[in-house]
C-alpha cells in the first residue's frame, strides 16, 4: 500500500484504536469514554451506536468509514490513508470500531499502516459482539454441563477461493459464534449438517445486541436459514450455535426485563385512560 508522503519534520498526532463495544453506551470502558470526549477527529464504523457517537465533541471532525455487506462506504486502503493523513494534521485521532478492534475488526492491518508511516498509536479494547450478545441474551459462551470450548469465526465462508472445512466446527461440546454470517446462513447450516452437527442443535441469532432494539431468534440448526430471513431481523446480528443456547429462555434477563417494562407501561396507560 502506498501512503501519502508528508514532511518528516511535520508534527504528528497520535491515533487511538478504540473498541466501542456491542452498542450499549454504558458498556464503553472509562478510557474509551475519556478519549472520545476529547477527540479532534473520529473515523467511525457503521456498527457504532448513535448513543456512543453522541459523546463525540461537536467541534470534532466525524468521518463515517464503516463497511456493511454490499454497502461499503470506504475501502480499507482509503481508511488507512485517512488515518495517516489525519494524524499529520490533528493531535488526537480516534479510530472507533464496533465491538473489539482485534476481533474481526482489521485493527491489526490499520496499525501496520501507522507503523509504516511512523505514527504513534494506542489500542483500547472493547467488549466484542460475542460477549455482549452472550451476556444480554442469557446464553453463556461456556458452561461446564454443556460445552468445553468456544470458537469465534467469520461468516465469510470462503478464504482465497477455498471452502470452509466445517468438520473443525462440528463438535457437539463446542459453542460456535459466527460474526457476519447472516447472508451465508444457509451455507453455514448446510456445511455444519454435512459435517455431522446434529440438526436439533440449538441456535440463536441475536439482533442489535445490548440495545433497546435487541431481539433473539431461537430455533434449531435445521431452521437457521429460515431464522436468518425473518423480516424483523435487524443488523448487526450474529449467530450462536450450541447446547448453551437452550439456557436463553431461563437466563435472558434483558429482553424479559424490557418486555415486563413494556407491559407495565401499557397497563399504566390503560389505568389512566379508565
Return the domain count: 2
Q: Which residues sit in consecutive blocks of at least 5 with pLDDT less than 50?
A: 260-272
Assess the beta-strand content as a share of residues: 15-25%
What's the CATH architecture of the largest domain?
Answer: 2-Layer Sandwich
- CATH superfamily of the largest domain, called what? Tetrapyrrole methylase, C-terminal domain
The main pleated sheet reads as:
5 strands, parallel
- Percent helix range: 25-40%
From the N-terminal CA to the C-terminal CA, the straight-line distance is 68 Å
Supply the number of helical segments: 9
Radius of gyration: 21 Å
Helix and strand composition category: alpha/beta
Topology as a string of helices (H) and strands (E): EHEHEHEHEHEEEEHEEHEHH
**Strand order in the sheet with the most strands:** 3-2-4-1-5
**Large-scale geometry:** globular
The average pLDDT value, as a whole number, equals: 87
The CATH topology assignment of the largest domain is Methyltransferase, Cobalt-precorrin-4 Transmethylase, Domain 2
Give the class-level CATH name of the largest domain.
Alpha Beta
**DSSP strand tally:** 12
Amino acid at each position: 500500500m502506498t501512503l501519502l508522503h508528508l514532511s518528516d519534520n511535520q508534527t504528528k498526532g497520535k491515533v487511538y484504536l478504540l473498541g466501542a463495544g456491542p452498542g450499549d453506551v454504558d458498556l464503553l470502558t472509562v478510557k474509551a469514554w475519556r478519549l472520545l470526549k476529547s477527540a479532534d477527529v473520529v473515523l467511525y464504523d457503521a456498527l457504532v451506536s448513535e448513543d456512543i457517537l453522541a459523546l463525540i465533541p461537536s467541534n470534532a471532525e466525524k468521518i463515517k468509514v464503516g463497511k456493511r455487506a454490499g454497502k461499503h462506504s470506504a475501502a480499507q486502503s482509503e481508511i488507512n490513508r485517512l488515518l495517516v493523513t489525519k494524524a499529520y494534521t490533528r493531535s488526537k485521532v480516534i479510530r472507533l470500531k464496533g465491538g473489539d478492534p482485534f476481533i474481526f475488526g482489521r485493527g491489526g492491518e490499520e496499525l501496520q499502516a501507522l507503523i509504516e508511516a511512523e505514527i504513534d498509536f494506542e489500542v483500547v479494547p472493547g467488549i466484542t459482539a460475542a460477549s455482549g450478545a452472550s451476556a444480554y441474551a442469557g446464553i453463556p459462551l461456556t458452561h461446564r454441563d454443556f460445552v468445553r470450548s468456544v470458537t469465534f469465526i467469520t461468516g465469510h465462508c470462503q478464504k482465497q477461493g477455498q471452502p470452509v472445512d466445517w468438520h473443525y466446527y462440528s463438535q457437539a461440546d463446542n459453542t460456535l459464534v459466527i460474526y457476519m454470517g447472516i447472508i451465508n446462513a444457509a451455507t453455514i447450516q448446510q456445511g455444519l449438517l454435512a459435517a455431522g452437527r446434529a440438526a436439533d442443535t440449538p441456535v440463536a441469532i441475536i439482533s442489535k445486541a445490548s440495545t433497546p432494539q435487541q431481539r433473539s431468534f431461537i430455533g434449531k440448526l435445521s431452521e437457521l436459514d429460515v431464522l436468518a430471513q425473518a423480516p424483523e431481523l435487524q443488523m448487526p446480528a450474529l449467530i450462536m450455535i450450541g447446547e448453551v443456547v437452550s439456557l436463553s429462555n431461563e437466563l435472558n434477563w434483558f429482553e424479559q426485563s424490557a418486555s415486563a417494562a413494556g407491559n407495565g407501561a401499557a397497563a399504566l396507560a390503560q389505568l389512566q385512560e379508565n
